Amino acid sequence: MSKPKLFIPGPVDVAPETYAAMAGDTIGHRGADFEELYASIQPGIRQIVGTSRPVFFSTSSAWGVMEGAIRNLVQKKVLNLCCGAFSDKWYGVAQSCGKKAEKIQVEWGESIDPEAVRAKLSEGGFDVVTLVHNETSTGVLNPLKEIAEVVNSFEDVLLVVDTVSSLSAMPINFDELGIDVLLAGVQKAFALPPGLSVFITSDAALERAAQIEDRGYYFDFCEFAKNDAKDNTPSTPAIPHLYALRERVKVILKEGLEHRYARHQENNAMVHAWGAKHGFELLPAEGFRSKSLSCFKTPENLDQTGWIKAVKEKHNFLINGGYGKIKGKTFRISNMGNETPETMQELLDALDAELPAFLS
Ligand SMILES: *Cc1c(COP(=O)(O)O)cnc(C)c1O
């Protein structure tokens, strides 16, 4: 039997067309063929991100760019907005880069309060804020627009936003929001295999980076900008991933962004309705719930491990049994990428079929 179809919140299921696209010819990256490939992706990906600025391609997972943003931008002190596994870890990464860091920490399952950000920034001394838009570990969707407005009201404070599990699933407009760095790995909402990240930088971010001497090489934002001017990347990129990205961007725009957002919303609502039917409670509060995944609290009377295993063994579908410190206490279902109401229904039917045997 083939590997289970992934309904975990990343990596997610990859379409056969995407795998096929990855099998394109290997080309030299310092030449016209590559420049053509690079340039051909730009208009579409910029539309998805809502920007007229270049989108850079990093051959790394998202953490490469997340750490890179710290190295490129933090001169004084970073404020990390922490509400789950990924956002919490960013604080640790900032410290391990030798940067001064402070955090606002909320309980896992809660969202970041823009007014708390205002109060903290008012203390002064900060020059960067990091925010995870859609905290994949808890299913919390943070109020990006409101937080961006607060950060933008402080001069010389740059906003870095992780949209790993939201970009292309929910509306995000880089230019309108006034973000300084937006980044995403491609193995979640974009439904590519892991191995590539995309990111965008503002002028202010590039100006800041240019002033920082020990920003390193591999994730040097100035190198990305310099090479982008020649439709190229600083070092040899994952060319198969760029073929795949070109293919997915075409598919995304063919569906249409509004339709894509609506499909995610509909699939997500199906999962929520299914959960409500069983009395499963969502971890995040109403109004702060992701549209690309659902994180439920595990009821006391459910043998979650057994249930997930049975669904995998009998139906070949995989959901996730919680991440980090809420592993075993929550379970998560992704509706990212290419899923449709039909494929979501197949999953929910399989979950239903196995559930009674694991409830006590
Ligand atoms: C998965 C994820 C990451 C980390 O991505 P890697 O590909 O493991 O580097 C970061 N942030 C969020 C919100 C994620 O969901």
State the CATH superfamily name of the largest domain.
Answer: Type I PLP-dependent aspartate aminotransferase-like (Major domain)
> In one word, what is the shape?
globular
Helical content class:
40-55%
Report the average pLDDT across residues. Answer: 98
Taking Cα atoms only, what radius of gyration do you get, to the nearest Å?
A: 20 Å
| Low-pLDDT stretches | none
What CATH architecture label of the largest domain applies?
Answer: 3-Layer(aba) Sandwich
Q: What is the helix/strand order? A: EHHEHEHEHEEEHEHEEHHHHEHEEH
SS field, number of helical segments: 13
Could you characterize what this model shows?
- The chain has 360 residues and is an alpha/beta fold.
- 42% of the residues lie in helices and 14% in strands.
- It contains 13 helices and 13 strands.
- α2 (32-49) packs across α10.
- The chain starts with a strand and ends in a 6-residue tail after the last helix.
- Bound molecules: pyridoxal-5'-phosphate.
- The site of pyridoxal-5'-phosphate (PLP) has 13 residues, from α3.
